[in-house]
Protein: Precorrin-3B synthase
Amino acid sequence: MQPATRRESADRCPGAVQVHAAADGGLARVRLPGGRITGAQLAVLRTAAAELADPALELTSRGNVQVRALPPGAEHELAARLTGAGLLPSATHERVRNIVATPLSAAVRPLVARFDALLCAEPALAALPGRFLATIDDGRGDVTPLLGDVGLHDSHLTLAGVPTEARGHAELLVRAARAFLAERADQHSNAWRLAELVDGPERVAARLGTRLTALAPNRTDPPGPGIHGDSAVLAVPLGLLTAPQSAALSALGEIIVTPWRTVVVPAAAMADAVKSGLVADPASPWAGVTACAGRPGCAKSLADVRADARAAVAAGTAEPAHWVGCERRCGAPKGRHVEMLATPAGYERSVVA
Structure:
């Protein structure tokens, strides 16, 4: 039997309404189900950041966008602007709209929209933790390895990344989310993730009348910078969209923000986006280099990791790695990766499995 993970406090994952008090001001996280955002919506978000906070927009490891350095009370104006742009359809459910989908698949987008609508329409699901994650994978295996609490892999239900015998669509994901809340209540737990419950995947599967399977779903590496059919994937250095970059992307109609801090744009429009500083070359030293916020935005950080990562890229000594300022390891990618951890004695390089 798997032991339970004890959480001593409720999840305080930030949203666009419930912001986190960081060292540099309020931190708001704007959920983008499936990573989709229109050019008009991005323009609203860019303008709001420029007028209310830090102009740069942060991309997260779940394909969302963050606004930093909000002064006290500015989150209300931000929420009003997001609501008007259609980026905040539910103030009660805004923190639980964590939906990551295969970014290069247009086929999954109606499914994302349907699940998002069902999620927001059910009052009880507002109780889901802000870290609860749904993955919708078209079967190629790029987002299933992110180990969503509930997910679909080519219509097969996954629970904490483990496949089950059940098959379905958005309604099945809603049932699975309900089952997680019911199992959590029966275990008298305040777990943030399904895998933190005692035998969570097995017990939730049983509630749904299905079983786990031993079949391993397909896995594929995330799409890197470059041309992919009619689309182009562009790396965003350190996951920070500058105002000129977000302005360039706003002119493209619609983009997809991925969980790997890249953006998907029409291949025909790639040249204009690259002129703003986004990276299309898979051999670029920026490819695969990510970082947490670090100093001065995070009081717990031991270093200005972004400045140090930039210096390493400029010096030609950088490798694909995630730079972090403390042992909380915020924003770390799933799976095997190189980590550069700031310590009082400097950076420690390690390979994280």
Notes: Residues 170-186 form the longest helix (17 residues). The radius of gyration is 20 Å.
